[in-house]
Every structure is written in C-alpha cells, then in structure tokens.
Amino acid sequence: MTKLSEIVLNGLALGSVYALIALGFVVIFKASGVMNFAHASLLLLGGYVIAQLHDELGFAGALLVGVVVTAAGAGLIEMLFIRGLGKVELHVLTILTIGIDILLTTELVRRIGSDKLSLGDPWGAKSVEVFGANVAQARIAAIVVAVVLITLFFMAFRYTAWGLSMRAASEDREAAALMGVRMKRVQLVAWCVAGALAAVAAVFLTASPTPGLDRTTGFVALKAFPAAVLGGMDSALGALIGAMMIGLTEALAAGYQSDLDALGGGASGIAPYVVMILILLWRPTGLLGSKELSRV
C-alpha cells in the first residue's frame, strides 16, 4: 500500500506538470488554430535561463526572469511567424513551428552540451512523508503550484475579457473578429501565457529526484502533447484530465516495471502514447473535444 501511495502521488505530481504544458498547447490552439510544436524548445529555453541566473538573482529572481523571457520568446514567435506571415494555411504554420523548434533546440543543446544544470530550486533532495510514503518535496510543490496556476487560468478564462474573447475565437474566429474581438491581441496573450507556463513546468521537470536540466529535457514536453490530444485540443478541462491520466499511467508503468517485463524495458516511456491511441480509437475528438458538424 505504501508503494502504491508513493506511485500515485508521483503520478499526480507528474500529471500536474504535464497539465501546465498541455494547457500551453490548448490555449495556443484555441486562440490561433495552430499546434505549437515549438513548445518543447520554449520549455528548454525557460529552464536554461533560470539555470544561468539563479546564482546571481536567487531562485525567485531567476524564475521571474525565466518566465518573462520565455513568455516574450513565445510572443515573438507569434508576431514574427504566425501573425507576420499573413493569411497562410494553419497546417503550414503548424509545420513551421516544427522548424522553429529544431532551430531553437539546436542552439540551446549546443549551449548546454553534456552538462546537467541545476535550477537552484529551494526543495533540493528533501522528502516528506505522506500517507506513509516518502515523497520528494518538489513533487508536493509541483502539485500545489499547478493547482494555483491552473485555478488562476480557469478564473481568467471564465471571468475576464480575454477569456471571453478566447471562448468566442475558439467557436468561430471570423464571427468573433466581426463582433470586435481583437484577434491579434488574443493570440499574442495566449502565446505569452503558454510560454510562461512552460517555464514554470521546466522547474519541476528538473527538480529532485531528476538530476537537473540537460539537452533532453525539452523532449519531455512531447509527453504532454498526448495529454492535450487525449482531452481534446480545444478543451482546457480536457487537457487537465488528460494530463492526470498520462501522469498516473506513466508512474504506474514505471513503478510496476518488473511486472511488465513482457512489454520490454521502456514500457513507461510509451505508456502515454498507448493510452492516447486507445482513447482516440474510442473517441476520435478526445475526451472533451468538440465534434465537428458538417451540413450535407
């Protein structure tokens, strides 16, 4: 029972981090209709900035700068490539984000090299006992921070003018524009919010028991992509549910790896994608995704 409690708590913590990343995918898709595959490199950018500055500015100062830089970087991508190219097919812009991701990741990997960088988080290797299981404090902090940020996000999405504009844009972009919604501003804010969430997620992806930031950290963001797809790319709540499912599945597969030898040694790595495929076979639009209606 102790082992199961530890696995579930780790799964919830991992799912909380995936939720922050998945929300970034969803908010950009809702605002601009683009699947942003450059999100992984933005996460790596945020982590790298924090790692470079925490000695000089302290963790809180480095985190603030990292969030601002990553949000600005995401906004710059939107202004230069998504908005700047004018009326281009959405699938072309999606492919373009893959190229941006390759360029940015290549430069960051060159700077990081073979090092493992510490982000200077205050939790270190400390652990706390919860339900009889020893869990890293960073895991508990990940859950708490994710709950706070996700709550603020949903409140903004529900009660602010930006949230109303986002909901209108996701329903019908052309109609929203005709009704006076400033689509350029909505898109820019959405990209900046996604970048900021990615920077925060980088902190918890590299905290204990993970050894730190390395060249492969950005690829972890791709594990959150199944969460966004699983929940439905146009549903923030679906992304949250999908992230928890993915996090728990990965943690359970890793915790009971010895019982899954027949599936090979990397069962936990492919588990998120297996879950995504099974759910999509049952419900192609995702758990809470909107169904497209065609008039014939």
UniProtKB/TrEMBL annotation:
Keyword Methyltransferase appears in the UniProt entry: no
InterPro entries with a match to the protein in the record: ABC_transp_permease, BCAA_transport_permease
Transmembrane segments: 12-29, 59-81, 88-109, 136-157, 188-207, 227-248, 260-282
Record's keyword annotation contains Nucleotide-binding: no
Signal peptide: none
PANTHER family assigned to the protein according to its UniProt record, in alphabetical order: ABC TRANSPORTER PERMEASE PROTEIN (PTHR11795:SF450), BRANCHED-CHAIN AMINO ACID TRANSPORT SYSTEM PERMEASE PROTEIN LIVH (PTHR11795)
The name this protein goes by in its record: Branched-chain amino acid ABC transporter permease
Protein's organism: Yinghuangia soli
